[in-house]
Design brief:
It contains eleven helices and 15 strands. The chain is an alpha+beta fold. It has three domains: 115 residues, Sandwich (Immunoglobulin-like); 115 residues, no CATH class; 125 residues, Glutaredoxin. A five-stranded mixed β-sheet has the order 13-12-11-14-15, with helices on one face. The chain has a four-stranded mixed β-sheet with strand order 4-1-7-8. A four-stranded antiparallel β-sheet has the order 3-2-5-6. Strand 7 and strand 8 form a beta hairpin. The longest helix is centred in the middle third of the chain and has 33 residues. The relative contact order is 0.08. It is found in: Cell envelope. Its main location: other.
């Protein structure tokens, strides 16, 4: 009986720890009683959830449970939807965690101030640095589109030069925040969203090792760890194999090419950078195919027709495989492939010896590994 009670108490303690109560109180002085606030957030189970409250005499309150600190959104919208006219969405992103969050504004949530928790303070501090840089970057993008439309090559060259120091500043601002805030839930989001599209283990491991245990225990932290571990499956020195159907529907096993150097190229018909790499790969294939070299294209298309059409259009002569499940294909999931183009080169024993070889001189890069 004592064991049962003890187990129940432990279970209750774990549940209580996972459910962090939050309270949001807001004042929107210029809003009447015909509006409501919609909260989109992550609940205590890590699932997307929504809650709402009517704005009464310019005030509203929402309470609930979450876990850790996660990105959330508040939207101000009419209680009764007016279908006669198009409505501009009025919303604001913030970070929600346990404790009290305060919202203060007038007639728009987008311009309101949201404060109260540690992670939201970190969010505000980060955006105070990054938002002015992003505003400058937007101006450069606008200049680019105008110059491209006018076919102004001189201006396009100047835009490219102007963009370099700004982009470098944006990257350093991001890196500094990650480095200086290893115990921030927001850092976890920034790492996952900006430093893990293609995981270079040598560069990423120092970042991962700085993250606190508290952050790595969060929903986002677990995603980081999962993707990091999957990236280790295609680290230099790892032996890899997989089986996928080819263009005729026949099962192709990568290890059937053991004894050759093989470039495994992850791509898709809709991926513009991937298609731009194909002429360079064609050149490499033409020069090296008689030197114990092969290419295997792994398409992450989710429809068969566009995949086969792209193969024909780009005149790709090497083996092509796909189960047309997009990024949900078992190989992509196992290797943590969530962005393309990506590739790796395996030696005759089936071990990875190089990764992400691309560009105009990819033929020379590949040739340098072939003995």
């Amino acid at each position: 009986m004592k064991k049962i009670i003890l187990a129940a108490l432990i279970s209750s303690a774990i549940t209580a720890k996972a459910q962090d109560k939050f309270n949001i109180t807001g004042t929107l002085s210029g809003v009447g009683n015909d509006k409501m606030i919609l909260l989109s957030f992550t609940n205590s189970e890590g699932k997307s959830a929504k809650d709402s409250a009517n704005v009464i005499n310019g005030k509203f309150a929402i309470s609930g449970t979450t876990a850790y600190g996660n990105r959330a959104y508040l939207e101000l919208k009419p209680i009764v939807k007016d279908t006669s006219k198009r409505r501009t969405v009025d919303y604001k992103e913030f970070y929600l965690e346990k404790g009290n969050t305060t919202v203060a504004g007038t007639d728009k949530i987008a311009t309101a101030t949201i404060s109260g928790t540690k992670v939201q303070a970190e969010n505000l501090a980060y955006h105070a640095q990054m938002d002015p840089l992003q505003a400058e970057y937007k101006k450069i993008v606008d200049r680019f589109y105008k110059a491209r439309a006018a076919k102004d090559s001189v201006e396009l060259k100047k835009i490219s030069e102007d963009a370099k120091p700004l982009m470098a500043k944006m990257e350093s601002t991001l890196d500094d925040f990650i480095k200086n805030n290893p115990d921030s839930y927001m850092t976890a989001d920034l790492v996952l969203g900006n430093r893990m599209a293609v995981v270079d283990l040598e560069k990423f491991e120092p970042i991962y090792n700085t993250l606190s245990k508290r952050v790595l225990a969060s929903f986002t932290g677990k995603k980081i760890t999962d993707k990091y571990n999957k990236a280790k499956n295609i680290a230099i020195g790892k032996e890899v194999d997989f089986t996928l159907p080819d263009v005729k529907g026949n099962e192709f096993k990568l290890s059937s090419l053991k004894g050759k150097y093989v470039l495994v190229d992850f791509w898709a018909s809709w991926c513009v950078p991937c298609r731009a790499e194909n002429p360079h790969l064609l050149k490499a294939y033409g020069e090296l195919k008689d030197k114990n070299f092969e290419i295997v294209g792994v398409s992450l298309d989710d429809k068969r027709e566009p995949w086969l059409k792209a193969v024909a259009q780009d005149k790709l002569p090497w083996t092509q495989v796909s189960d047309v499940k997009g990024f949900k294909t078992e190989v992509a999931v196992r290797f943590g492939i969530s962005a393309i183009p990506q590739n790796f080169l395996i030696d005759p024993s089936g071990k990875i010896i190089a990764k992400d070889l691309r560009g105009e001189d990819v033929n020379k890069k590949i040739a340098s590994y072939i003995k």
